[in-house]
Amino acid sequence: MAVFTPLSDAQVATFLEKFDVGNFVSLKGVAAGTENSTFFVTTDRRELVLTLFEQGEHAELPFFVELLDYLDEHRLPVPGTVHDRDGISLHSLAHKPALLFPRLPGRHPEAPNLSQCQALGDTLGRMHVVSKRFPGHRPNPRDLHWLRVMHHKVLTYLSPDDQMLMKDEVDDFESAFAQHDELPQGALHGDLFRDNTLFEGDTLGGIIDFYNGCTGDLLFDLAIVINDWASNQDGSLSSERYEAILSAYQARRALTADEQALWPTMLRMTALRYWLSRLLVVYVDPPAHDLTPHDPERFRTILKTRIAKGALPLPKVSS
After folding, report:
1. What is the C-alpha to C-alpha distance for residues 297 and 303, in angstroms, rounded to an integer?
2. Domains along the chain?
3. CA-to-CA distance for 174 and 172, rounded, in angstroms?
4. 275 compared with 289, residue with greater pLDDT
5. The predicted structure's pLDDT at residue 1
6. Cα–Cα distance between 196 and 107 in angstroms, integer?
7. Other beta carbons within 10 Å of 206
8. What is the rounded average pLDDT of the residues 141-165?
9. SS3 assignment, position 107
10. DSSP per position, 182-209
11. Model confidence over 49-62: pLDDT tens digits?
């Protein structure tokens, strides 16, 4: 159960009095999640999500609030924060930072179909067009600089072949990016896996959990999506899902020449990003709570497949 700070009905009922959301009816802890405590809250007027922030840099929470509110104002399917009667959304509850959100409709797609992939690609394209104008700034905490610094921490736990693989990849990434100008920048979700989306049938009801949100290369966000949404079990790319996502995305925002040139490299880099982050959780910085870490092997497999087979051709953009 991923509720690390239990709350009573009375605590939440009192908390809700600050907001114009109706009277408290019920509270339910949410089992999903590895970092924060999340609850479904029902009032006599609406369904809400209450999140207590257990870890991370609390000073960065205003960035996430501003990003969610900005995207919500631009009619993206994200949970803009609920503000109290004084216009404030970030509060404290049980001595933890707390945010209240509308509960968005839908379920996580375990095996997304082509219509769902198309909807995701279209929405991510719209989001990136809008996010290029987002005024906030938070450097990408999992970019190439992070890979360069952090990969040394796990080398001792790897086989000699995997040590060489990781070192060579970081060197290759640095060389490849040095040959190109800065890529298009904007606000990113930073972790847009299937379990951070909600679908009702083929309709995308919401994109959630922006707590890896940052600003940086838009292509980084897109590569994370493809590696999760379009990868088969053996790490290879599904041409149908790949085409559905990228065609819909590029109808909203066509990739630049530099982005196209770096696309295979970015797919490898984001695969290494998750292989490394999962290795760090297993060997170096285990979770504070009794939760099972994600298996690093999944993204090692994806990385090795991207190296062996490269990327599929990018869909052609209609002029």
Report:
1. 10
2. 12-102 (3.30.200.20), 114-309 (3.90.1200.10)
3. 5
4. 275
5. 41
6. 10
7. 20
8. 97
9. strand
10. PPPEEEE-S---GGGEEEETTEEEEE--
11. 999 998 766 888 99
